[in-house]
Amino acid sequence: MAEAIVNNIDGTQWQAYSAGTQPAGFVHPKALQVLAEVGIQHQAKSKSVDQHRNLSFSLIVTVCDSAAEECPIWLGQDRVHHHSFPDPALATGTEEEVLNAFRQVRDEIITQISILFKTES
């Protein structure tokens, strides 16, 4: 969700690339659903950080504790920001409760990205 949000909020100043240390192999349908609720149509695929090995990043943002611990050192650069979000794919309950978990993470990412843009600009 973070990649889609960043590229939707300010795709001209920042370009986000999302990848996982242990990618699931698919983008969760509920993530796409809650992004669409706020007008973000995202065509995405699950990627590994190894796919970005040859890219140079000016800022690395990790969004889960395991990624902060497992990110390859070559991604590190000088500017690394970590913010831990709960994994909504692990949410349990009714369909609405699970969707609300995705919505909460989506909304928190939007808030945190806006704050980060202000401090990094």
Characterization of this structure:
With 121 residues, the chain is mostly helical. The protein has a single domain, classed as Rossmann fold, CATH 3.40.50. It is built from four helices and two strands; from the N terminus they run ααβαβα. The longest helix has 26 residues, at 95-120. The protein is globular, with a radius of gyration of 14 Å. The mean pLDDT is 81.
Q: Quick recap of the structure?
A:
By secondary structure, this protein is mainly α. The protein is built from 4 helices and 2 strands.
Total E-strand runs? 2
Question: What coarse outline follows from CA principal-axis ratios?
Answer: globular
Give unreliable regions as ranges: none
CATH topology: Rossmann fold
Helical residue percent band = 40-55%
- Quote the distance from N terminus to C terminus: 22 Å
Return the string of H and E elements: HHEHEH
> Strand arrangement, largest sheet?
1-2
CATH level-two architecture: 3-Layer(aba) Sandwich
Question: For the residues shown, what is the average pLDDT?
Answer: 81
Structural class of the secondary elements? mainly alpha
Rounded Rg: 14 Å
What name goes with the CATH superfamily? Answer: Response regulator
The percentage of residues in β strands lies in under 5%
How many strands, which pairing sense, and closed or not: the largest β-sheet? 2 strands, parallel
Number of H- or I-type helical stretches:
4
